[in-house]
Amino acid sequence: MNSFTYSYRFSDINDSSRYFAVDNYRDSESYQACIAVDDREFLKTGRTIPANAADIVDFAVAVAAADRLSISKDDTRNSIHVVLPVRNPEAFSNSRTSKLISDILYWYTGDYWYFSFTKHSGLRRSSESQECLPFDLAHTPREVALWSGGLDALAGLYNRLNQFPETHFTLLGTGSSNIVHNNQKETIVAVERVATFLGRTKLIRIPIKITQTIEHQKNRQLRARGFVFLLIGTVCAYIEGQDLLNVYENGVGAINLPYRASEVGLDHARSVHPISLLDMSTLASELLGVRFSLQNPFLFSTKAQMCEQLVNNGMIEMIHKSISCDRLRHEHPMQCGLCSSCLLRRQSLAVLGVEDPDNYVATAHRDYGQDSQSFDTSHLRAMVSQVETLRKILSMDNPWDKLSRRYTTLMDTVDRTAQHQGLSTFAMQQKLLEMYGRYVTEWDLVGPAITSTLAVH
Amino acid sequence: MPDGDKIHTKLRFFYQKVYTQLCETTFDDEDVARDVLTSIRRAIKYDGGGRPFRMLEIAAAQLERVPLEPLARKEVDWTAVTSALEQIARDAKGKKRIVELALSTSKETLHDLRSGQIIEGALATELYKNYLSNLYMSEFEGNIPLAEHYNGVTQQSVDERLASIRPYVIAGLEKFAGQIGKRGTGTSLRLPKRTKARSPINLHETDLLAGF
Q1: Comparing A80-89, A286-295, B180-189, which segment has the lowest mean pLDDT?
Q2: Which of A72, A152, A264 lies closest to B101 in CB terms?
Q3: Which terminus of chain B, N or C, has fewer Cβ atoms within 10 Å?
């Protein structure tokens, strides 16, 4: 019997759809699906994509497909085998890199990942072969960041555009949703309307298309999404001649502590957790053969703190362009207002005195004739419960000791990443305590207003 | 980032009956606690019996190597110890959730050792006890719905009732941990003896033949 639960055999990954074979050994099912990555927008950098970077894109795309189609049955761990042709198999196959890859993917997904890298046929994608217009950007300071089209990405960009007036920004968006794809563009158009920002941003979107899968069950959790996004962002920064990829994410969301004791392990995503960024820095350096870093400049800020400048400068329309929801709808209002991503957004904007009730199903319910009693308030109740836990712990003697005992991930985070943050362990502990303290205070200010809109008492 | 976070809104079927008992005043605290323990025992069996305890035994052996003297503790590479615990979890068999819960228990105990806490008795038994307590919190107490309760009971009443049964539950879990320590298995766990005798059936007040 095969020891893998899933096996994926890819041929060269191209701009146009190519078949790949899926073997689901647990359910004795085999089929073919299609995959394509359109990375021609990398040409906006004025450079063709080098072979080592094209390999990383292929690798990220293959992981995205395997993550999408591997279902965890009865909460068991999958053993996923991926066969992927790359231009330089040696770069991926050496023992250090392959251990790093499987360690990081285990951290992200809780599954066992195995890879066999074969030799690529040599057929190049447009992004590798097309002539591009020569740009002379050598003297322009540049920052590359991930671009989700969400509020954190927007607030982060806005702060950085103001903080570094000489710097130009390349923003990388990816994924397979057309709604998100369009929203990423609309939000950046709104940013560029500010006179001092005009011509300082460049949006590069790399859509991944996984098709011919309608009949097959999908993994809805997509815990490798952060891994894929960060890898493609790394490639973008590398092509732009940078050795740093920025992620703009508030600290509470980045660390993403469980709300209640019932949430264990990967119930909460680790997409841009500080440990994820540290390990991805190591992997990027290994794969690119140069020292490369991933950083989150807002790790010690709450979401409300991140949004302060936007609100103080009256950029409310820009805020309304951004989307945070985990359960996005096709029609207006597109955001539910009930998932944890929406709630954190609503909380942060409420702290700053901004109301955007029309943007959520939950708060626009009067217009839609819906009764607030029928809404799923489980996320809100869970978040409020976490705030109570934090409040209790932070009021105790020696709060760091109590906090890191209750949430051991914080102990690991400080142990592993303080140095990467350029801080002593004590200084990082204090910064985290301060951030969670502020977060609790923010909820005290606006919690009752948010809960009352959902009839939660 | 919050990205499709999973929030548990329902109790597993093992705990549903005992939850309704919790919400009814007719059941004695100790009886409810015993039913919680019975539910935990069934859940352990369903989730692979001894698997997490085997993992915790190996984790305990790893933690035994952590020096207890304050000066020696300063020299410990805590990241390396954490990595070793993570590797033990990765090598362990079992459901993701159970393995993660056992790993987080191991890390809590590492935290205690690191902060100089003295652990009396066998470290493995301490780990079993902490794991069972975490299992109880994650599966029952920390998973009870936060919305409307059964029988129209208020959240405050549920919280008070949980506080009342907790000492009995914790005492029972300690007994379970002791049995696992002695026998090395999480199966066939015996409930602790009742602290008070059941009240005898009063034949004068109860019509045993009603309905016949």
Answers
A1: B180-189
A2: A264
A3: C
